[in-house]
Amino acid sequence: VFPFLPGFGFCYSIINGPTNATVLAGSEARFNCTVSEGWVILIWLSNGNPVLTVINSQGAVETSDRFTSQNYTSSNGFTSELIIHNTQLSDSGKIECSTQQSSESSFAFLSVQVNGTLFIKNSTLTVKENKTVEIVCEALGWAPAPDITWMTNDSFIDKLRYVTQQSQGSNGLHNALSILTLTPTDTEILTCLADIEALPNPQNATVTVIFVNST
To answer: SMART domains given for it (predicted)?
Structure first.
């Protein structure tokens, strides 16, 4: 179809493009692009901006120390692995592997998430019999806003017993405030959990509610 394109006789193409990734800010993100024999120039783009070029004859041309690459050659083609170091919220978006000759490209999406802080102001609370108490758990500086749940003694608390409000913080970050209403009948340890996809385990904050008989 395009007889004038160099290397077209090799049926040159992208065999495997990059796949979506979700990572915590500050960590590495890695994307692979495998091309068949006959490729000449491969370009990696982040949100439309070229960040790394790989030339068949001379290897990778790195212009920023945040974007580096590793190369692997196998029987079925050449794989370029783009490594984004110290990922930032602004790196979120489209990561594209493009080939100069056939102007073919393949893309994936990077989601960079921010693990903020989580705290309950008091570590212990003393509550008398028949008294209701509100326990406040605060999540600051997250992206996206975290899912908040509560637990007591290893079991989840019914969602109807707490209210969570989310608000926009600064620099694209989010805050959340969760208020649990409780009428204790015994001393118990309560745990507030905040979770986002990139976290291997939710962050948690605990409070010990000490129950006191009015007698």
So the answer is: IG
What confidence tens digit (pLDDT) does each residue in 73-111 have?
Answer: 988 899 999 999 999 999 999 999 999 777 789 999 999
Which DSSP letter does residue 143 get? Answer: B
**Whether residue 94 is found in the same domain as residue 108:** yes
CA distance 67 to 135: 44
Round to whole Å and give the CA distance between 179 and 135. 6
Round to the nearest angstrom and report the end-to-end CA distance of the chain. 91
In the chain, what's the furthest Cα-to-Cα distance? 94
CB-based burial label for 4 (10 Å; 0-12, 13-18, 19+): exposed
- Cα–Cα dist 56/35, whole Å: 11
Is residue 144 located within the same domain as residue 73? no
Contact 66, 23 (CB under 8 A): no
Q: Is residue 25 one of the residues assigned to a domain?
A: yes
Per cent of the chain over pLDDT 90 is: 80
Residues 136 and 176 reside in one and the same domain:
yes
Q: Is the peptide bond before 6 cis (omega within 30 degrees of 0)?
A: no
**Does 8 reside within a domain?**
no
pTM of the model: 0.86
Domain finish residue from 65, 83, 113 = 113
For residue 12 the two structure tokens come to 């040159």
Residue 11 pLDDT level (bands cut at 50, 70, 90):
low
20 — pLDDT class (breaks 50, 70, 90): very high
